[in-house]
């Protein structure tokens, strides 16, 4: 639509900005940046285009340039909530949490019913250990936007850790209803179903997560453990090995593979893997205990 508009109008900064936003949503980031820049050539003080260009630049790792644009937006319009939110996210990414929090709260003050801001503020709170407060903001985001997949997923993780498995599963399913290709929600649903011994369904969701993100090491490890638990050892080993091929210092996968090898009576190989797990994660209690048991077994033979 906006391409058509530009065919018939000149110097239409709104059309360039809107075309940029459409391209950005399609994942065409470079083309989106070009459109935002064209909008700003026509109207350099357009706060929407400045903010959108900043967002696109931040996506490709140009954080300094993005932050300068967000600051410029706020010079033109100190109450532009989206720029406060974007600055907050950028400061969080840099580890400057005090400054990030100022901008999150400013964004919420200006736009108290913005689901995206509540969700991102929840992420920030969670990152500094304020879990209850984070959950409250995920809930608020869902009050405003009930189909907010990421908020469903994060609140589900919080509830699962509190032992509220049924509610957590409901939220993971709700996330997937809204966003079927959401790998993290498939993974978390798989974990929750495993906890309820619904292994067949858990395997389905782990496999779906790997279809979407084939190199996700934690999914390979979790799927391997479930497969090992139902006696599908060769498949389990393949997933542990895949996890280690992607992340050679993944202590949990070394430990998992060690347990399977020990179960098959391959004690020497198991010991080697437990030692690797401890080498990469010295405080890994389970791997240390497994290593001690394997060494004890070796001595008995």
What is the straight-line distance between the termini? 75 Å
The major sheet is characterized as:
none
Radius of gyration using CA atoms only? 24 Å
- State the assembly state of the protein chains: single chain
The number of helical elements comes to 18
Shape: elongated
Question: What's the overall average pLDDT, rounded?
Answer: 94
Topology as H/E string? HHHHHHHHHHHHHHHHHH
Question: Unreliable runs, pLDDT <50, ≥5 residues?
Answer: 4-8
Q: What structural class is derived from the secondary structure elements?
A: mainly alpha
Our estimate of the beta-strand percent is: under 5%
Fraction of residues in helices? over 70%
For the secondary structure, the number of strands is 0
Account of the 3D structure:
This protein is an all-alpha fold and 301 residues long. 79% of the residues lie in helices and 0% in strands. It contains 18 helices and no strands. Helix 1 (2-8) packs antiparallel against helix 2 (13-25) and helix 5 (63-76) runs antiparallel to helix 6 (81-93). The radius of gyration is 24 Å and the shape is elongated. The relative contact order is 0.04. Mean pLDDT is 94; it is low at 4-8.
Briefly say what this structure is.
This protein is mainly alpha-helical and 301 residues long. Helix content is 79%, strand content 0%.
């Amino acid at each position: 639509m906006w391409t058509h508009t530009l065919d018939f109008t000149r110097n239409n900064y709104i059309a360039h900005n809107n075309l940029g936003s459409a391209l950005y949503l399609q994942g065409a980031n470079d083309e989106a940046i070009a459109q935002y820049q064209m909008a700003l050539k026509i109207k350099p003080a357009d706060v929407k285009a400045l903010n959108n260009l900043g967002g696109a630049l931040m996506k490709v790792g140009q954080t300094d340039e993005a932050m300068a644009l967000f600051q410029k937006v706020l010079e033109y319009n100190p109450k532009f909530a989206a720029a406060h939110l974007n600055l907050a996210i950028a400061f969080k990414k840099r580890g400057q949490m005090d400054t990030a929090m100022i901008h999150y709260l400013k964004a919420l003050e200006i736009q108290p019913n913005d689901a995206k801001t509540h969700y991102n503020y929840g992420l920030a709170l969670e990152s500094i250990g304020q879990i209850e407060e984070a959950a409250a903001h995920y809930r608020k985001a869902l009050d405003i936007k009930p189909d907010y997949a990421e908020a469903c997923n994060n609140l589900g993780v919080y509830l699962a850790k509190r032992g509220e498995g049924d509610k957590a599963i409901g939220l993971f399913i709700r996330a997937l209803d809204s966003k079927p290709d959401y790998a993290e929600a498939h993974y978390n649903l798989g974990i929750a179903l495993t906890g309820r011994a619904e292994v067949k369904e858990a395997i389905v969701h782990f496999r779906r997560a790997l279809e979407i993100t084939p190199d996700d090491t934690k999914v390979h490890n979790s799927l391997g453990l479930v497969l090992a638990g139902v006696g599908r050892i060769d498949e389990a080993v393949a997933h542990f090995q895949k996890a280690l091929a992607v992340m050679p210092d993944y202590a949990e996968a070394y430990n998992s593979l060690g347990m399977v090898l020990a179960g098959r009576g391959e004690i020497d190989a198991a010991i080697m893997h437990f030692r690797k797990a401890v080498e990469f994660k010295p405080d890994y209690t389970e791997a240390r205990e497994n290593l001690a048991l394997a060494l004890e077994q070796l001595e008995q033979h």
